[in-house]
Amino acid sequence: MIDLYTFATPNGQKVSIALEELGLQYKTHVVDITKGEQFKPEFLDINPNNKIPAIVDHATQDHRPLKVFESGAILFYLAEKTGRLLPSNQRGRAEVMEWLMFQMGGVGPMFGQLYHFARFAPKKVPYGIERYHAESRRLVGVLDGKLGSGEYVAGRYSIADIALYPWVAGARASFPELFRGNSNVVQWLHRVGSRPAVERGMKVPQLK
Fold first, then answer.
1. Distance of CA 150 to CAs 23, 147, 153, 196, Å?
2. What is the pLDDT of residue 206?
3. CA-to-CA distance for 50 and 36, rounded, in angstroms?
4. How far apart are alpha carbons 53 and 203 in whole angstroms?
5. pLDDT of amino acid 17
6. DSSP E strands, the chain
7. Percent of the chain scored above 70 by pLDDT?
8. Which of 208, 203, 205, 207 lies closest to 28, judged by CA?
9. Contact 197, 161 (CB under 8 A)
10. What is the pLDDT of residues 140-167, one digit of tens each?
11. Measured between alpha carbons, how far is 157 from 153 in angstroms, rounded to an integer?
């Protein structure tokens, strides 16, 4: 059994999608970041960086609970644990890790800043909106170019697709103009989003 500490954000959805795809048993614990629950001592004991998601795996080789935080690290851990969604050969593995890091270091931070400046900043800062809008559109273009040569970002469906999907799907809903002329990404969104495990994972956690 794996304990999943999460909230309804793209980073949280990445991990619930992976757990569903891998068929692993897990229990969901809602960490309501709108109420500051990520700063509670019991959660900081799992993730000292006070961010969701985090997991505690109770089915480990040494029979001791293992805490893992940072969504990319969790995806990598789960893929290695099960031997799935990550190629075993060197070349394929490197490609998946490239696009996983593309999400972690590019898509997530840049899309997140665009959301902040365009939707949540107390004052509109045109420079910030324009900067992150332009960079987000550039990243969508990079992804579209990669998807022009295959159905998934690294050949076969992998943790790289899982990492990217919630962020890209959310951006398309909020900023559809980023996707004009990027039909490969739009097709990929439909392809990944129609997977039953993705549909289930995107609904975790169920908030009242």
1. 26, 5, 7, 21
2. 87
3. 9
4. 15
5. 98
6. 2-6, 26-30, 54-57, 66-69
7. 100
8. 205
9. no
10. 999 999 999 999 999 999 999 999 999 9
11. 8
User: Residue 207: which pLDDT band, with cuts at 50, 70 and 90?
Assistant: confident
Amino acid letter for position 121: A
CA atoms within 13 A on the CB side of 176: 1
Q: At what angle do helices 71-82 and 159-174 cross, to 10 degrees?
A: 140
Per residue in 11-54, pLDDT (tens digit) is: 999 999 999 999 999 999 999 999 999 999 999 999 999 999 99
Cβ atoms of residues 51 and 28 within 8 Å? no
Residue with tokens 């509670």: 40
pTM for this prediction: 0.97
DSSP reduced 3-state for 27: strand
Vertex 86: Cα angle to 81 and 92 (nearest 5): 145
Percent of the chain past pLDDT 90, that is, above it, reads 99
In our burial notation (b when 16+ CB lie closer than 10 A, e otherwise), range 18-50 reads bbbbbebebebbbbebeeebbeeeebeebbeeb
CA dihedral 49, 55, 58, 60 (to 10 degrees): -80
Cα(58)–Cα(63) distance, integer angstroms: 7
φ/ψ region of 183 (left if φ > 0, alpha if ψ in -120 to 50, else beta) reads alpha
CA distance to 3, 60, 76, 77, 87, per residue, from 83 (Å)? 20, 14, 10, 10, 8
The DSSP letter of residue 34 is: G
